[in-house]
Write a structure and sequence with these properties.
This protein is mostly beta strands. The strands form 2 sheets. Strands 1-4-3-2 form a 4-stranded mixed beta sheet. Strand 5 and strand 6 form a beta hairpin. The chain is globular, with a radius of gyration of 14 Å.
Length: about 100
């Protein structure tokens, strides 16, 4: 889900686990506000994020505690690397 109001790319616990990323309990030391309330997140840097042929390297991200995020969010730590983010005729346009 693209969220221009999110500071960081935010991975759900489950999506992070599917990528092989398992922060330890002590790493969930940052507090953030979500639509579901206050949550603790772990900070990570993703080597690269691919969206089709679009690739962005060294993306700061956070990982939510188990069950806190229903969906991962593509926030500004990813989107700010793009030259174009807009919708036109019902299509989302992302360009590097």
């Amino acid at each position: 889900l693209i969220d221009t109001g999110a500071t960081y790319l935010a991975l759900s616990y489950e999506d992070a686990a599917s990528l092989g990323i398992y922060p330890g309990p002590a790493e969930y030391k940052y507090e953030t506000r979500t639509a579901n309330g206050t949550a603790h997140v772990a900070a990570v840097t993703l080597r690269e994020v691919r969206l089709g042929s679009l690739v962005v390297e060294n993306v700061q991200a956070v990982i939510g505690e188990r069950g806190m995020l229903d969906v991962s969010l593509l926030g500004m730590s990813f989107l700010s690397h793009l030259s174009r983010v807009e919708t036109a005729d019902g299509a989302l346009i992302l360009r590097r």
